[in-house]
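Subject line: Sequence and fold of a protein, written as C-alpha cells
Area: Proteins and the way their chains fold up in space.
Start of record: The labelled sequence and C-alpha cell lines come straight after this line.
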Amino acid sequence: MVKVAFIGLGNMGYPMAGHLSNAGHEVTVFNRTAAVAERWLADYQGKRAATPAMAAQDAEFIFTCVGNDDDLRSVTRGAGGVLETLAAGSVLIDHTTTSARVAREVATACAAQGVAFIDAPVSGGQAGAVKGVLTVMCGGNEHDFERARPVIAAYAPACALIGAVGAGQLTKMVNQICIAGVLQGLAEGLNFGQRAGLDMNVVIEVIAKGAAQSWQLDNRAETMCRGEYDFGFAVDWMRKDLGIVLDEAARNGAQVPVTALIDGYYAEVQKLGGQRWDTSSIIEVLRHRQG
C-alpha cells in the first residue's frame, strides 16, 4: 500500500480515486470545486488538499485526470502545481486525454526534477470507471510502468505499455477514430432499419450474433433507437478528442477523412443542444436532416 495523490474528481476521476482508496492506498485528493472533494471524502477514506502541490507532497504516485492540455499544464507546471512538491523518484501518471505534444512537454519538466512520467489515457467510459474495469494505454519507461501497474490495477485490469512517452495518447487517438467510425456506421444502420419499418429489437438481436457485433451495438443500439442519450461519454468531450486526432493527423500526414466528417456531424449534434448527450446521439443528425 502506497501514498498517492489524485488530482481531478470528474466523472472518471471520482470513482478511480475511490478504487485506490478501497484498495487500501493512502489517498489525498484535489479538485477545483472543493464541494466535490468533500463529497468524495464522505464516500471514501482519504484526505483533501487545497492545491495540487499540497496533495502531491510526499506522494509516491500522483494521478491526474483533468480536462485538456491547458488543465494538465496548470495542475502540473502552474502555480500550486504538483511539480512544486514532487520528490525525485516519484511517478506522475496522467489519465487525461491530451495531445501527445503536451505529454512530452510535461515529461520533460518531470525529468528535470527526477520525476517519472507516464501518459496513460483510459477507455471504458464512466461505467468502466465506476466498475473498476477500465483499459489503460500507456507511454513511458518500462521500469516506471512496472512500478505503477500494480497501483493502476485498482481500477484497470487491462493496462499496457505501448511505447515511449506520447504513445499512450497516440493509441487513445486510434481508439477514438475507431469508436467514431463504428458509431456512425451503427447510426446509419439503425436509422435505415427504422425508416424501412423493421422491428429493430429483432434486428439488433440478430445482427449482434454476426459480424456486425460491437461494444457499441451491444450497449447503445437500443437506446439509440429510443432516442435516449442522458448517460455515457459526452459529445463535447468527443469533439475535444477528435480535434486532437485531427491536429495530430495534420502533423503526421495520416489521412482521416471519415473522422473529419464525423467530427462535423458531432458539431451538428451540439447545435441541436446535445453538448452533454452521449456520443451515440450522432444518429440525431440523420433524423434531423430527414425532418
